[in-house]
Amino acid sequence: MSAKPKLALSVQYADASLKDTITRPLLRRWVQAALFAPAELTLRFVDAEEGRTLNRDYRGKDYATNVLTFAYTEDEDSEVTQADIIFCTEVLFREAAEQKKTVIEHTAHLVVHGVLHAQGYDHEDDEEATEMETIETELLATLGFSDPYAQR
Questions:
Q1: Could you give the C-alpha distances from 2 to 35, 39, 126, in angstroms and in order?
Q2: How far is Cα 42 from Cα 87, in angstroms, rounded to an integer?
Q3: CA atoms of 116 and 38, how far apart (whole Å)
Q4: Dihedral sign, CA of 51, 81, 125, 135?
Q5: Beta strand pairing status for 67-71 and 7-13?
Q6: What DSSP string describes the chain?
Q7: Which residues in 69-106 are b (16+ Cβ under 10 Å) and which e?
Q8: Residues above pLDDT 70, as percent of the chain
Q9: Can you give the pTM of this predicted structure?
Q10: What angle do CA 109, 111, 112 make, to 5 degrees?
Q11: Is-contact 64 48, C-beta < 8 A?
Q12: Which residue in 110, 118, 111 sits closest to 80, CA to CA?
């Protein structure tokens, strides 16, 4: 078994509604599963107001979204991946209910998704989306979760 990449992980619960459910040990496990290189990551859980402000100010989209990744080393060859990954708890709860998933399943998926973005993966075109979705599905399977795209 290969060694896990080194991880410096900070977790912030600006909105504490998931603090008792989505714990630091779970987050570390999910992040570590999606890492291909050493990383320094901050995961921050926010309310809809902060999520909307960040999405508006940095992406020009005036609504709260499920996950935002601010990658500071966005290529696969960087020695250390550095990123802030922001999760909007209200959107996580709503989407989990809409998709008939637990909030744990949905959050695990979005953590993996955000960590892949931090490492330079994207889904701007069909080929990139297929590659990223395949990697997400495989990683989530190793964590005991079903294919997040199976219900489409």
A1: 12, 16, 31
A2: 11
A3: 13
A4: negative
A5: unpaired
A6: -PPPPPEEEEEEESSGGGTTTS-HHHHHHHHHHH-SS-EEEEEEEE-HHHHHHHHHHHHS--S--SEEEEESS-STT-SSEEEEEEEEHHHHHHHHHHTT--HHHHHHHHHHHHHHHHTT---SSHHHHHHHHHHHHHHHHHTT---TTTT-
A7: bbbebbeeebeebbbbbbbbbbbbebbbeeeebebebb
A8: 94
A9: 0.93
A10: 65
A11: yes
A12: 118
Question: What is the DSSP pairing of strand 81-88 with strand 67-71?
Answer: antiparallel
Query: How many angstroms separate the CA atoms of 90 and 135, rounded?
Result: 26
Please give the structure tokens belonging to residue 133.
């979705």
Q: Which two tokens stand for residue 41?
A: 């990551």
User: Do 92 and 18 form a contact (C-beta atoms < 8 A)?
Assistant: yes
pLDDT digits (tens, 9 = 90+) for 56-88: 999 999 999 999 999 998 655 668 999 999 999
What tokens appear for 63 in the block? 């609504």
